[in-house]
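Troubleshooting: if your tokenizer reports a length mismatch, compare your output against this known-good record of 155 residues.
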Amino acid sequence: MSTRSMIARRYEDGSFRAVYVHWDGYPEHNGRVLLSHYSNVDNLNSLLDEGDISCLRETVGEKHDFGETPGLANKNEWTTFYGRDRGEKNIEACTFETLDELIAAAKERWSIYVYVLDALDAAFDGSWSFNRCSMDGDLQDLEAYLRQVDLEESA
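Known-good structure output:
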């Protein structure tokens, strides 16, 4: 069973550019990976440029065999993409004018979570927030949420 999600960057005009992610979309996995490795706008843009994702990892990595598990991609923490690594077409990042449009698209793809990097100034790292698609359209601060999860797990 997969936990689907979408990853997006919010731009100065309020629009979003986003990709679909099939596996491990819960905050304790994809959220942590995004927070630790993709808060930099250039890193996130490299991820979005490759299109829809099967499995998010610590780096964009290199082209590899899609079905190789466990293999080079896991060993090197490379992200697995539907286009680059499996040759699928029409998997490019999509643009949405509003958060509501992004969440609606996520629901159409059976996504449970939407992650948004607010990176209004490309010269600085952004801050991550997320939405559980079954809830209202408000975004929660991802770092604060994960801090709370860690506190509860250590208690």
